[in-house]
Amino acid sequence: MMDARGWDAVIIGGSDPHSSEYPAERWQQVRFVSDFTGEAGDIVITREHAGLWTDTRYFIQAASQLSGSEIQLHKLRIPEAVPIPRWLAEEAFPVEEDIIIAVDGLCQSVGAVEELRCAFGGRRVEIVSVPDMLSPLWPDRPAIPETPIITLGEELTGLSRDHKLRELRKFLMEKDCDAIVLSALDEIAWTLNIRASDIEYNPYAISYLVVSMDKADWYVRKDTFAEPDEETASSFYELRSDGVQEQPYDDIDFALGELGGRVFIDTKTLNYHVYNALSGAQKVCGTSPVGLWKAVKTQTEIDLMRETHVEDGLAMEKFLFWLETALRSGEPVTERSAALKLGEQRSLIDGYRGDSFETISAFGENAALPHYVTPAEGAPYLEPRGLYLVDSGGQFLSGTTDITRTIPLGPCTPLEREDYTLVLKGHIALAMAVFPLGTAGCQIDALARAPLWNSKRNFGHGTGHGVGFFLGVHEGPQDIRQNFNPQPLLPGMVSSDEPGIYREGMHGVRHENLLLTVDAGENEFGRWAAFDTLTLCHFDTSIIVPGILSRDESAWLNAYNERVFRTLSPRLDAETAAWLRKKTLPYLL
């Protein structure tokens, strides 16, 4: 293909036309080319080289999955990292001009293409957009998915669809714009108060939304011009009554070509192909306001998420009791059967709509892979020794959950106990944080890392990410990580607290709860914020190394475990409640 079209390089992106973190099967293009299954990765192919760029979470996984191929691993988020644009400009083509680089413009954001163009400075480089470039090589390529639509009322969201559209139009007036194009699927779902299942684990409808001062056009593949299912038909009727008109998804190019005036776009999420379709409009580039609006939860959403975490905590404790009982009795348990058992417990909760991501169920050395994929067949058996890590979550009509527990299944080595305790110390330090309002996550990330740093240990992933309300389990604009992100942590935001440590070939540890940022009052030094822990599931204290936790950290741990017991035990059967009582007895320094 490159020979026939004169391309010097091809970039295959790991996302979809909507800059989604988890693309549908149709856009698993990196997996199709390389067999790499990680959630973050891009491939570059030149005539002499094929490379995969991914970050620290996937180094071990990528090295294994690329073994035996000619594709080389390029590491990101390390000091000597060379990102794709710089690699192409400085290493692949350091002096050449008249270079042609092909990208699938549907799966590259405007910002990514501009970054690529800037890397070459003033040199003559042509970047050609070839939508769906892999289709000729992929005869059984999956279709764009279509799943039923549901709408959420104010009793779940706290804000009506009409209110959100009015806020968008106020934003347009402030920016002196005539329309805004939304392409991020979570932003569209939040704005329209709709949910679907077009992407596994993510309740989105693949679509675009164009809002102007007098109308809102929703470009979506839902067979609305034939015979939609009853639930979807009812949802569209409700949307039309609020002035939202559905349009065919594939008409977006033509519609934007007809659009004039000043149009607001977010180049971080809008794809390059659609951007180019805006040929007759004046493009106003900036950050979509919807990301921040949805990150600050309404009081209704907060109240429902609190209730959801009680239900999720009950499921977790029932699962952990079953796990301990099964292993003690000698019942064979695999990583896979444990994951299925946990999913079964969650599925019994009212409003359950599926898992929020694929459960990571990892024993021993498998837990050293932060994003380990538990095998469907031939999964390892759990043994009554060492550490077992389970990272899981659920999607519910009343919220999204995400929790990780590292569980001692029997005798642990001194190093396992020490790593377990240090990661827990970091988790608690962040959970206890009090900080001036306006503080960004990158400014307090070190609180969770300091206990590990003091022992010359570290972890490569972020400490925390935002979590949506029956939306994505990973959302922005806030995060808690070392990378500079100026977005403050505001009251109403829900973020994870998940430090970890990973020793290849040995074990992995991660402790994760979800935290709600809350107002902590005002004094002569200004306004303050703090965290309120939403997640309810005990931390095992049996292998904590004495002397590592401070008195304050021990007090926090004991208070948290006691809160878990008092909240959950009245709704557990007597045997499980008695077991939980033993697990939550105070830890003594």
Would you write up a description of this structure?
This protein is of the alpha+beta class. It has 3 domains: 2-137, Creatinase/prolidase N-terminal domain (Creatine Amidinohydrolase, Chain A, domain 1, 3-Layer(aba) Sandwich), CATH 3.40.350.10; 150-295, Creatinase/prolidase N-terminal domain (Creatine Amidinohydrolase, Chain A, domain 1); 299-583, Creatinase/methionine aminopeptidase superfamily (Creatine Amidinohydrolase). Helices cover 33% and strands 22% of the residues. The strands form 8 sheets. The protein has a 6-stranded mixed beta sheet. Helix 4 runs parallel beside helix 5 and helix 15 runs antiparallel to helix 16 (445-453). The termini are far apart.
What's the structural blueprint in terms of helices and strands?
Layout: H1 2-5, E1 9-12, H2 29-34, E2 42-46, E3 50-54, H3 59-66, E4 71-75, H4 84-92, E5 99-103, H5 110-119, E6 125-129, E7 150-151, H6 154-157, H7 161-174, E8 179-182, H8 185-192, E9 194-195, E10 207-212, E11 216-220, H9 230-241, E12 244-248, H10 252-258, E13 262-265, H11 272-277, E14 282-285, H12 290-295, H13 299-329, H14 335-347, E15 352-355, E16 360-363, E17 387-392, E18 394-396, E19 399-400, E20 403-408, H15 414-431, E21 434-436, H16 445-453, E22 464-466, E23 475-480, E24 494-497, E25 500-503, E26 507-510, E27 513-523, E28 526-533, H17 551-568, H18 574-583
Parallel strand pairs: 1-5, 3-4, 5-6, 8-13, 11-12, 13-14
Antiparallel strand pairs: 1-2, 2-3, 7-9, 8-10, 10-11, 15-18, 16-17, 17-20, 18-19, 21-28, 22-23, 24-27, 25-26, 27-28
Helix pairs in contact: 4-5, 13-14, 15-16
